[in-house]
Specification:
mainly alpha; 119 residues
């Protein structure tokens, strides 16, 4: 019936509801961003990244798709590194030395007859 009434799939897009995004100015994250930025001040790269991350997260939770999921994942990883202070931890910890393959002892070959004894 839908195909008869609408002729083609493009007509269905006109009948679909439009989604809108509303910003809650009283939300703690929005208040914190507003307080950090202030009026007339330039927005830093970190603040821009936070705003983009907040927007992309709102898109995902609203059922939309984001333009660049790889960039979104990179922003999430960067926020995790910042929250966990990974850069400071990496500098404090010395990298472990990887042993040379020549230094690693090869396991001794087991006697093949022992497997036959089990059967």
């Amino acid at each position: 019936m839908k195909a008869q009434a609408l002729r083609d799939n493009t007509m269905m897009s006109y009948m679909a509801g439009k989604k809108s995004m509303e910003i809650n100015p009283d939300h703690t994250l929005v208040k914190a961003l507003r307080d950090q930025i202030g009026e007339g001040e330039t927005i830093t790269a970190v603040q821009t990244s936070l705003i983009q991350l907040l927007f992309d997260t709102a898109l995902l939770t609203g059922g939309f798709t984001i333009d660049d999921p790889v960039k979104f994942a990179g922003q999430v990883y960067k926020m995790l590194e910042t929250g966990l202070r990974v850069d400071a931890l990496e500098e404090a910890a010395a990298p472990e030395a990887v042993p040379d393959m020549e230094d690693v002892a090869e396991p001794e070959a087991e006697d093949e007859g022992s497997l036959e004894d089990i059967d």
